[in-house]
Amino acid sequence: MDKFDLLNSTLLNTMTYQAYFKLTEELLGEGKTTGPNQTEDYVHYTNLNFHRMKRLYKTVTINSELATQIQSITLPQTWLVISEAWCGDAAQNVPILQKMADLSQNVELKIILRDENLELMDLYLTNGGRSIPKLIALDNSTQNELFTWGPRPSTIQKVMNELKAENVSQISEIVEKIQIAYNADKSQSIQNEFLQLLTEKNN
User: Fold this and answer.
1) Residue 176 lies in a domain
2) Per-residue b/e over 168-179, b at no fewer than 16 CB within 10 Å?
3) What is the 3-state secondary structure (H, E, C) of 170-185?
4) What CA–CA distance (Å, rounded) separates 183 from 179?
5) Is 39 exposed, middle or buried (0-12, 13-18, 19+ CB in 10 A)?
6) Domain for residue 189, yes or no?
7) What pLDDT, on the 0 to 100 scale, is given for residue 171?
8) Quick one: 107 exposed, middle or buried, by C-beta within 10 A (0-12, 13-18, 19+)?
9) What are phi and psi of 87, to 5 degrees?
10) Which DSSP letter does residue 152 get?
11) How are beta strands 145-149 and 134-139 bridged, if at all?
12) What is the pTM of this model?
């Protein structure tokens, strides 16, 4: 299956942000998470992520300049996001992406799970890895790709690169340092990156 057909096929099996949030809540009620890795650690991170998503969606405000760019989108499009409930970067960024999509009748955010869609995921690797979240913006009339984004803002990626350079391998330490970086950033980096992306696309 070529990329175009794969994207079209995938779009038939997506969920809304609200359905993704509800799925996460239901799985946690069963002591589970998304994907095949059902370890205690993954369920623990999913629980943290669930509360983080809930808080961010309630509290984050899209800045006025970005809001203006989003509201000026005239081309109906789908923002297809590859995600998983246990992923910390997804918990930090997917609620922001939904808040952006909320501002335009021409933008619909749809979510798929990475480990159920590896064929598509493997077309959007980051440095050879299946890093998420990954957003693929598609023109609704043609399904042509408009732009991609992910898995994290460049400022957070810089912290990740530094941890790798220091050979930090403890997952708990990496999660803590990345969380500190996100808390300090307050969603400004992702908003700035989308402002630049959409300014280029709208002009």
Assistant:
1) no
2) eeeeeebeebbe
3) CHHHHHHHHHHHHHHH
4) 6
5) exposed
6) no
7) 86
8) buried
9) -85, 120
10) S
11) antiparallel
12) 0.95
Domain count across the chain: 1
Domain-located, residue 71? yes
Name the residue range of residue 135's domain.
3-151
Query: How far apart are the C-alpha atoms of 31 and 82, rounded to whole Å?
Result: 23
What gap in Å lies between CA 188 and CA 195, rounded to an integer?
A: 10
**CATH code, domain with 66:** 3.40.30.10
Q: By C-alpha distance, which of 158, 160, 151, 159 is closest to 132?
A: 151
Reported as type and span, the H/E element at residue 137 is strand 134-139
In a domain, 186, yes or no: no
Report how far residue 152's alpha carbon sits from residue 160's, in angstroms, rounded to the nearest whole number: 10
pLDDT tens readout for residues 146-195: 999 999 999 999 999 999 899 988 888 999 999 999 999 999 999 999 99
Asked if 171 contacts 41 with a C-beta cutoff of 8 angstroms, the reply is yes
Element (H, E) at 146: strand 145-149
